[in-house]
Amino acid sequence: MAHQFVAEWWPELFEGLTKVQRRAVLNTLASSYHEGWEPNREYVENLTDYARGAISKEEYLRRADAAVDRRYPAGSE
Question: Is residue 76 part of a domain?
Fold first, then answer.
Protein backbone atom coordinates (compact mmCIF):
# COMPACT_ATOMS: atom_id res chain seq x y z
CA MET A 1 0.00 0.00 0.00
CA ALA A 2 1.26 3.43 -0.93
CA HIS A 3 0.87 4.96 2.53
CA GLN A 4 3.47 2.59 3.95
CA PHE A 5 6.11 3.95 1.60
CA VAL A 6 5.47 7.65 2.09
CA ALA A 7 8.11 7.86 4.83
CA GLU A 8 10.60 6.38 2.36
CA TRP A 9 9.55 8.73 -0.46
CA TRP A 10 10.03 11.87 1.65
CA PRO A 11 12.14 10.89 4.67
CA GLU A 12 13.07 14.51 5.39
CA LEU A 13 9.43 15.24 6.22
CA PHE A 14 9.50 12.67 9.02
CA GLU A 15 12.68 13.96 10.67
CA GLY A 16 12.12 15.10 14.23
CA LEU A 17 8.94 13.10 14.75
CA THR A 18 8.73 10.80 17.73
CA LYS A 19 7.72 7.18 17.15
CA VAL A 20 4.22 8.01 18.38
CA GLN A 21 3.93 11.04 16.07
CA ARG A 22 5.25 9.06 13.12
CA ARG A 23 2.75 6.25 13.75
CA ALA A 24 -0.09 8.79 14.05
CA VAL A 25 0.87 10.39 10.73
CA LEU A 26 1.15 7.03 8.97
CA ASN A 27 -2.20 5.92 10.41
CA THR A 28 -3.80 9.13 9.13
CA LEU A 29 -2.26 8.55 5.70
CA ALA A 30 -3.48 4.95 5.71
CA SER A 31 -7.02 6.05 6.50
CA SER A 32 -6.94 8.60 3.69
CA TYR A 33 -5.43 6.06 1.30
CA HIS A 34 -8.22 3.59 2.02
CA GLU A 35 -10.71 6.31 1.10
CA GLY A 36 -9.10 6.61 -2.35
CA TRP A 37 -6.59 9.41 -1.74
CA GLU A 38 -3.15 9.24 -3.35
CA PRO A 39 -0.20 10.62 -1.33
CA ASN A 40 1.33 13.91 -2.36
CA ARG A 41 4.25 15.74 -0.81
CA GLU A 42 2.33 18.91 0.04
CA TYR A 43 -0.27 17.05 2.11
CA VAL A 44 2.33 14.93 3.89
CA GLU A 45 4.46 17.99 4.66
CA ASN A 46 1.48 19.84 6.11
CA LEU A 47 0.54 16.84 8.26
CA THR A 48 4.07 16.18 9.53
CA ASP A 49 4.62 19.88 10.29
CA TYR A 50 1.44 19.87 12.36
CA ALA A 51 2.31 16.61 14.14
CA ARG A 52 5.78 17.95 14.95
CA GLY A 53 4.29 21.15 16.38
CA ALA A 54 6.01 23.35 13.80
CA ILE A 55 2.68 24.89 12.80
CA SER A 56 -0.57 25.64 14.62
CA LYS A 57 -3.92 24.04 13.92
CA GLU A 58 -4.98 27.30 12.26
CA GLU A 59 -1.95 27.20 9.92
CA TYR A 60 -2.57 23.53 9.18
CA LEU A 61 -6.15 24.32 8.17
CA ARG A 62 -5.10 27.41 6.17
CA ARG A 63 -2.60 25.32 4.19
CA ALA A 64 -5.16 22.56 3.62
CA ASP A 65 -7.76 25.06 2.42
CA ALA A 66 -5.23 26.71 0.10
CA ALA A 67 -4.30 23.32 -1.39
CA VAL A 68 -7.95 22.54 -2.08
CA ASP A 69 -8.47 25.98 -3.64
CA ARG A 70 -5.49 25.41 -5.96
CA ARG A 71 -6.74 22.00 -7.06
CA TYR A 72 -10.38 23.01 -7.42
CA PRO A 73 -10.59 26.71 -8.30
CA ALA A 74 -13.95 28.41 -7.79
CA GLY A 75 -16.16 27.98 -10.82
CA SER A 76 -14.32 24.91 -12.12
CA GLU A 77 -17.10 22.46 -11.23
Answer: no
Range 9-46 burial, b when 16+ CB lie within 10 A, else e: ebeebbeebeeebbeebbebbeeebeeeeebeeebbbb
pTM of the model: 0.84
Identify which of 50, 10, 57 has the alpha carbon closest to the alpha carbon of residue 28.
50
Report pLDDT digits (tens) over 7-45. 899 999 999 999 999 999 999 999 988 888 888 999 999
Residue 52 placed within a domain: yes
